[in-house]
Amino acid sequence: MYPRTERTTATRMRDRMSYDEAAAHAVLDETYHCALGFIVDGEPRVLPTLHVRVGDTLYLHGSTGSRPLLAARGDAGLPVCVAVTLLDGLVYARSQFNHSANYRSVVAQGTAHLVTDEREKAEVLTALVEKVGAGRSADSRPPSRRELAETAMLALPLREVSVRARTGGVKDDPADLDLPYWAGVVPLRLTAGVPEPDAGVIAPVPAYLRPTRSPWLEPVVMRGEHVALEPLDLSHADELFTATADPEVWRHLGGPQPVDAAEMGQVIAAYLAAHQRGERVPWVQRCAATGAVVGTTSFYEVDPDRRSVAIGYTWLGRPWWRSGINTEAKLLLLTRAFEELGAVRVVWHTDIRNERSQRAIERLGATREGVLRMHRQRADGSWRDTVQYVMTVDEWPNAQVSLRERLRRPAAVA
Description:
Elements: E1 17-18, H1 21-30, E2 33-40, E3 43-54, E4 57-63, H2 67-71, E5 78-92, E6 100-114, H3 118-132, H4 145-150, E7 151-157, E8 160-166, E9 184-187, E10 222-223, E11 227-231, H5 237-243, H6 247-250, H7 261-276, E12 280-287, E13 293-303, E14 308-316, H8 325-340, E15 345-351, H9 355-363, E16 367-377, E17 383-392, H10 396-408
Parallel strand pairs: 14-15
Antiparallel strand pairs: 1-8, 2-3, 2-5, 3-4, 4-7, 5-6, 5-9, 6-7, 6-8, 10-11, 11-12, 12-13, 13-14, 15-17, 16-17
Helix pairs in contact: 5-7, 8-10
């Protein structure tokens, strides 16, 4: 526990105060930025900055020419007050007076000193990079001597620290409980969006930037003799556009053919956004022999409770049709669904006009269940009837044998 001091003792709502070290550390570690308050030339200053906690010391990031860093030079250091807040929800009461917020906050006070040891500074910068992504320090270039010289760090020992928090629901006055107004809590949380790569980046999105999800929503890497399935990424836009440039690839798909790599990037971004929402699991297909990107495929309608998943949003460059790539990709996806995820049902949907796709699905061993009338809208605005096929876990053993036998033939049929 941190000791109470005159500065950390609340004058009101003391029941919201805490001095627990673990609680304070948890809030400091979860937040990415803080407000740094200090006095310069007799005037108050508050600056937003990055921070990282290492043990019992809070380190504050800055440049060597910034006001607080200049003021912290010398043995006396710089008296500071650091505040962080996590807003967890908005509380809507029946009365305006009792509207509130759920939050967790930490205030740390003391004297900060400039970090002068180069080794300590380098270690803190590594810790700061690791805070934004565990493993990032090994996945990026370390700072040069010049960059270290231009970077400054303040070290604040965590000695005078308080935690303040509000949790729970509405706290209306008894006389207001019968008022005809909605009351309750709207939870808030900070969530990461889809990573947007810089121009020219060809490296895939690293694992530490992908959210932890149910195994059903995880685009695991799968490899066979003909094809490798890897998580779809915006960096695949150029190759995917080139591979699927034939209009015949897009004739029965739900969207228009991209006119350039930038539009292909928009298609991929939509797929990744659907994955972020838990609606789809997209893979890129690579030719196992050459490593070239040749197409994409996805799980969708993922339903772990009913142990069901659909395979679709599949498009493959025409040069790789009837090459074995599509057959093996389906074998990998079916193996993933039935044997790793425990699915009991795998579904396919295809345009009723796409007889080629229907024959391909039937060759997989799926059974035609029926037609969903006016099920989806085509790129030209017309409504399509969709043929639905299904393979059950009971049908999977025989289908697996058949698929493997087809792949052993000299010219596998996609």
